[in-house]
Amino acid sequence: FNDASKGDFIPEQLDLEILGRLYYSAIRHNEKYLEEVGLTPDHGGFTALLALCCAVSSTQISIARMRKDGAKFESAISNHFNGITAPGCRFLFSQRHGIASAQKSGRSTRLIVAFSSLGNGLVRHEFGGSLAKINNQLYGDGIFDVLFVADPSQSWYQKCSNGSFYGFEEYEQRIRVASKPYDQVSLVGDSMGGSGALLFSHLATESVVAFSPQVDLDGDVHVSRYDMTTDIREGFRERLLRSVDEATTKRVSIIVHRGVEKDDVRHTDRLMSHISANASESVAGHVKIIEHADCDHHQIAVHLKRKGQLATILRHNLF
């Protein structure tokens, strides 16, 4: 597992190795249940067991207790299959992030909230390396704390810790409370995390930086949850756009980076179409789309990291 203070993103091969270990530990702990229903103690058997449990708890004839237990079951699976070591998985607070312990005196006045993407299938806290680098560059001139926020349910921050679809309310409440002591609050995220940064942009006071965010989840290839219904996806889009409206009214700067991949262009077009139709010219000027023509795929943040530009862009855009 990664230390959030050291890296931004993890190589896919490492995640595949850890995923294998997570499957192994889950199978070992569920051998008696696999045997009980006649399934083999391997990847195929365990996956079939998960499918059976999900099917039983989600049918219309399921009793209320089974549906409630099904939500707990789904939450437990999400809490197990991720690359996060922080208790509770979803939140990790890092005081004066990346600064040596001996120098961590006094309270910061700035908070960066960093939202996680899907990663390579294992959700992790992200942007830790670049934010630590920036903090060390700023040392003595307004360094900041970081609140890492993750969604191991891979639901675009729609599912909460008990497995129900009250994620927005839970995440908003936790972020709002964590942000209260700070004079300046900025948000950042990539892909699903970029969507999270826009979704909660109304909580920012300074800036929001989103890399290749999804604005309209309908038809997006990255959204694979069968229970993300049309109503949930529409509710997500409407809440995200409302949050952006609230943020721009407060003169919060919103900067979106993307490449030229077709779906990423669609999402930013949807965002700017809403801004153009609903905001005054002065407010609309607080939203900026930056296209990187040399990136023809979705992973723009990884692309910028490889070019050695990510930390510089974050420093210029967040402050």
Describe it for me?
By secondary structure, this protein is of the alpha/beta class. The protein has a 7-stranded mixed β-sheet with strand order 1-3-2-4-5-6-7, with helices on both faces. α5 (128-138) links the parallel β2 and β3 (144-149). The protein has helices at residues 12-29, 31-36, 43-58, 64-80, 128-138, 167-179, 192-199, 230-249, 262-278, 281-284, 300-306, 310-318; strands spanning 91-94, 110-115, 144-149, 184-190, 207-211, 253-258, 287-291. α3 packs antiparallel against α4 and α7 (192-199) packs across α8.
Task: Provide keyphrases for this structure.
globular, alpha/beta, 46% helix, 12 helices
Number of helices: 12
Main sheet?
7 strands, mixed
Helix content, binned percent:
40-55%
Number of strands: 7
H-E order? HHHHEEHEHEHEHEHHEHH
Sheet with most strands: strand arrangement: 1-3-2-4-5-6-7
- The whole-angstrom Rg is 20 Å
Ends: how far apart?
A: 30 Å
- Indicate the proportion of strand residues: 5-15%
Structural class: alpha/beta
Uncertain segments are: none
Shape: globular
Whole-number mean pLDDT:
89
